[in-house]
Amino acid sequence: MERLDGDQEFLRELLAIFREDVRVNLEKSHGAIGIGDYEQLSRAAHTMKGMLRNLSIDAAGETAAALETAARESRAGESNELLQKLEKELEEILPEVEAQLAGVRS
Amino acid sequence: MRILVAEDDALSRTLLERTLQRAGYAVISVENGAQAIAELVKQDAPRLALLDWIMPEMDGVEVCREMRRRKEQAYTYLILLSSRESKEDIVAGLESGADDYLTKPFNVDELKARLRTGHRILELEDHLVEARESMRFQATHDLLTSLWNRGVIIELMSHEIMRSRRERSCTAVMMCDIDHFKSVNDQYGHAIGDEVLREVARRLHNSVRSYDMVGRYGGEEFLVALNKCNPGSAVARAENLREKIAGRPIQTANKPVSVTISVGLALSTEFPECTIEEIMHQADMALYAAKAAGRNCVRVARPSGIGTPTEEQPKETEVLTP
Q1: What was the pLDDT predicted at A23?
Q2: What is the pLDDT of residue B317?
Q3: CA angle B17, B18, B21 (to 5 degrees)
Q4: Is B220 part of the annotated catalytic residue set?
Q5: Chain B within 8 Å of A9 (Cβ-Cβ)?
Q6: Does B105 contact A53 at a Cβ distance shorter than 8 Å?
Q7: Predicted ipTM of the assembly
Q8: What CATH code is carried by the domain that includes residue B13?
Q9: Which fold has domain A7-101?
Q10: What is the C-alpha to C-alpha distance for residues B16 and B27, in angstroms, rounded to an integer?
Q11: DSSP secondary-structure letter at B269?
Q12: Model's pTM, two decimal places?
């Protein structure tokens, strides 16, 4: 978080972008996997990887990276598993994000 | 300093924007490669760019390639942003014309340090361009008057006469010589003589159109070429140049100095079979005639001999006016 320089307001701005873009990219991922569009899946995973790493959410970032690779190589089974794993990891993070965002507003 | 950020991921883009703004940059951000190109080819475009590797429309590598294909504009320092596992792509990225790359997520100090490198390269580039332009100017211009030098004015005029022959238009060649210039030097000294040369040059230059050409042919001799000149008005324009010099004294550091010029005029249409050298020789002969006629006047070279400005143009000379 050294990049944020302890700027709370800016952190919240980033988290708001994160919350929205994770939602969009998860939807894209499900849509892509449904029709076997692995290129689209790989792109969505790439975007999520970047966001997670920028926020130093490393474990989920690595899952997204693995998903990006698996999707690029069109490995269907592994892509499915990794997407589920990533979703679970994000579910654990998002309440924290929500709390941070709510904390600001009060 | 302005910088372009091309990044499709909103979070990463926002983070970069803020970091760069804090470091004192004015940031222009776009979301894909096509927009990046559109910004980078504008007049006054930023000369530093951070380009995400993977973007929709056109990726960072393609942007680099496209920018390097365009050689006409100032150098742009391009930094690619890549994820850390795509090491094998680094070579391809640099070969596309990127100057450097940075792995995401970026470290602020590293980003700043790499941008400083970019600044150094751009400064070097600016110095080189400046030196090249200055040398180009010195090689083509007369040191004292800043007019075209002898070699260049002859070459430019030759091209122009060739073109006027193709286009059936007319180039007017005028040899202008300051009368009794030696006595100016003798009387007032060479410094004043130089001032007179500069002012005559300035007046000649300011009295012609932007697409006409004025050069310093020799010591106190100037060569003026009027492009696409109406042959019927060439004499009047030569008279106008003569009048611009004789009309009012030149204010030098010491005192006003009055000088006049003699002008020898030759029209390319009157000598359709002649070489450039022969046309210049004709103008030179007319200049001698003007000197012999008492100076401060214009004489015109005609195939039949030297004439005075008031003489009718020979009717058989067919002249197409543009």
Answers
A1: 92
A2: 36
A3: 85
A4: yes
A5: no
A6: yes
A7: 0.82
A8: 3.40.50.2300
A9: Four Helix Bundle (Hemerythrin (Met), subunit A) (1.20.120)
A10: 9
A11: G
A12: 0.68
